[in-house]
Amino acid sequence: MIIKRLGMILIAISVMSLALGAFAPVAQASEGDLNIFNPTYTNQDVDMDTSIAYKWGIYNNGVNSHVVLIDIAGADDGWIAEVADDGSYFEIAPGEFKVVELTVTAPNSRDYPDISIFMTCTVRDLVTEEQWQRDMGSVTTTITGGAYVPPTQVLGWFDNPLADVHDSLDSEYGVFLTTLGIWILIGAAIYLVLDPVVKHFTKSTETEIDDQVLAIVKGPVFYMIVLYGAVSSLEVLNFSWSVIHAIEITYSLIVIVLIAWMALKILKDVLLIWGKTYAEKTETTLDDIMLPLFEKMGMVVISLIAFIMILNLFGVDVTMLLAGMGVIGLVIAFAAQDTLGNFISGMFLLTDRPFKVGDLVLMENGDYCRVEQIGMRSTKLYNTFDHDMIILPNSKIANEKVINLTEPDNKMKVKITVGVAYDTDIKQAKGIMLDVALNHPDVIQDEGQSPFVRLVDFGDSSLGLKVYTWVHHLDDQWRVGAEIREAILEKFNEANIEIPFPQHVVHMEKE
């Protein structure tokens, strides 16, 4: 009954979780729902009466659709600034990437001052009706007639040292290669320095877990640093926003896969191996049974988290997925009540340990069984009399009276009852029974466990005498009991002590 109640409690929890998920408010919109990528070059030169284009990238990282209104400020004194293809007002769905292109046209005279264009956007969420404003940044354009000048600052700190090596490297590609090389050096330095430094601090520990974890993570950490440097260095190249967005998505995907791989590797090659080593040193079987379960659950949880992060990366709303998982959990809870009850009962048997493998137990139906295996769903019992293997669900054993004959030790009390006639000399009969018990070689005669005889019953046909003895091992109880009975019968016959048959005395009266 306890197990069924626990199963119903878990079902109720699943129903409440599903209800809360169903009636939860719609995800709130916030300014962080939109990722805005500023233009690559914010200061450029342009000839008179010519145009130059700046591009912004907008990515909807939320779960609701938004309407975006672009506002332009600062276009005066003959300058013209407009958003191309009527892109000043548009709708952007979750996970969608939009490119906003601003075209700035210079006046037809060099007498006009430089112009700074400021971009802002007003965003309205189509589900929650919330509205907010975002600053998209600014661009500055100068009328000099010069052409595009690539950046020359590496990491924004110093000039490109490759510019003096070859003319072809005096460009944005030279800056990119230099920046990427610096990030590779940073990753290599961390890779080479991290190992000895960490080992210096962990060499005093008794376990090798820290060294094993370090050996697993140092390689992926190096690759992630190099990839981060490569992606962050792309801002100096004149790539389109769609290409940059695709590269950043790919980078995030690789990072998620690397982190999931490290987690699975640590789980399989470090935690589980350490757990198996520890389990071999303990007497309990709980850790031996829980380790495979922990391995499977860990692999499923890590893979599921990585899968959800990947879906979220591509703009997929995982709310419906989680709600679907709640429904599936509810269905499984209803369909697997008995299995779940057996699993919980198995946990109780392994933690409370009313018996262990190898113990001899007396079942409620009178069977003497030896425990062969305790599993998460069922327990295997060997019937020592009938030579049968009994497989019982854990929920049945948990709710049944089971006597552990092996605890607290292997000693066993043997009780033998004999009926003698009412005219028997009780002292003589008790003396014979006690002598037989004391003379048996397998009967314990220690203080507190020596044999004794008691008059226990006044029966219809006889007086009940019972001798109490202890044997060293419970497997000897049937043999010792039989041998003592045979010896008592022999001694009673020699002393002419009657063991009467059941009889009734009938008195008849004459009228």
Outline the structure in words.
- The chain is α+β, with helices and mostly antiparallel strands and 511 residues long.
- Among the domains are: 119 residues, Immunoglobulins (Immunoglobulin-like, Sandwich); 53 residues, SH3 type barrels; 83 residues, Alpha-Beta Plaits (2-Layer Sandwich).
- Helix 2 packs antiparallel against helix 3, helix 3 packs antiparallel against helix 4 and helix 9 packs across helix 10.
- The chain is built from ten helices and 19 strands.
- 42% of the residues lie in helices and 23% in strands.
- A five-stranded mixed beta sheet has the order 2-9-8-4-6, with no helix packed on it. Strands 15-14-13-12-16 form a five-stranded antiparallel beta sheet. A four-stranded antiparallel beta sheet has the order 1-3-7-5, with helices on one face.
List the helices and strands and how they pair.
Elements: H1 2-23, E1 34-37, E2 43-46, E3 51-60, E4 66-73, E5 80-83, E6 89-92, E7 97-105, E8 115-125, E9 131-143, E10 153-154, E11 158-159, H2 172-202, H3 209-233, H4 241-281, H5 286-313, H6 319-335, H7 337-352, E12 360-362, E13 368-374, E14 378-383, E15 388-393, H8 394-398, E16 403-404, E17 412-420, H9 426-438, E18 452-458, E19 463-471, H10 477-494
Parallel strand pairs: 2-9
Antiparallel strand pairs: 1-3, 3-7, 4-6, 4-8, 5-7, 8-9, 10-11, 12-13, 12-16, 13-14, 14-15, 17-19, 18-19
Helix pairs in contact: 1-6, 1-7, 2-3, 3-4, 4-5, 9-10
